[in-house]
Amino acid sequence: MAETPRTITSPYRICPLGAHVDHQGGRMLATAVDVGTSLEFTPADRLELESENYPGVVEFDPAMVSMQVPPEGIPEWGRYAWASLVALRDRLPKRPRAFRGRIGGRLPGAGLSSSASVLLAYVNAWADVNDCSIEPVDQVRLVVNAENDSIGVACGVLDPAAIVGSRKGHLLEIDSDTISWESLALGVAAPKTCFLVFATGKERNLASTDFNRRVGECRDAARWASDALSIDACTRLGDVPREHLRSVVERMPDPLRSRARHFVTECDRVAEGATAWRAGDVATFGRLMNASCRSSIENYETGSQELVALQEIWERTAGVLGARFSGAGFGGCSIALVRSERAKAIGVEVKDRFVAAFPSLGETADWISVESADGLGIR
User: CB 3.0 to 4.6 Å from 192: which of 55, 96, 326, 340, for a disulfide?
Assistant: First the structure.
């Protein structure tokens, strides 16, 4: 008798505050949202995968896979199935079971952490067919290892932590230093709001951007501060005592000064934003989102032409409380906190203005309204 297919729902995430700090030991405010990846699968001896979004088929025997290079001939999107297996290999049997499945999701590659969403889906599928139990914090670590070691992106814990730990109706305050999180309810004084996601229609792959270079510059800034302060060498800005770091930021050479300035001010915005969210002060929260985006542009030097123009459109649109890039800011999409009663009108207005500025993206640019959601589920 054929086994009943199982389905893993792995949401995407948004991060209203906490840009570019997770790989440096900072804190972030994030939530999973009600769009994401869906993987339907059944156990099998060999991996056989199809995608709703990309062409080609991924096939390989997990027992024969090299830990150094992906299987020959698989499409680029198949690297994530291989990377998840590599990260899990020590936890699985010598000859692990695989699965046959189909994966899909809306807005892949747009800046909503689709890579972490996909990796978490695969990690849980490998674990499920091999009767392997993995705690949430370990799932986060496994995905970070897969991104860092196999995909080649020097990211931190933000994406998988937000997806694993999220609770519907809340923001998650994530401590990337301890890999822990706390759910924050929106204060009762808040008016009804929601988040809009606007996808520019231009996909990006972080491994092919300046993302890793920026991470390296942050690490260089941490080492510079350590030398200037005569303390033990630090490799992350978050490891430098915060007040000591503040005292030397403006003495650093550029671009280290700009990267460290962004880290310090963004950590301040996260702390202020958590207080505002608990109090229901969405006006202050939105103002902090705008300030975060400006710092991403000016201090962290991210933002494609399209995303910078989109931010300016958001800030000129009535009913938008605040906005900023989603993801690393090298392309993809942007998010905005808006008053719910104007959400549809805002989405239409912003799209019209954006397409007028970038007519070639008229067929692919799109917006959706999203709600916070519970984290990863399997049934």
Answer: 340
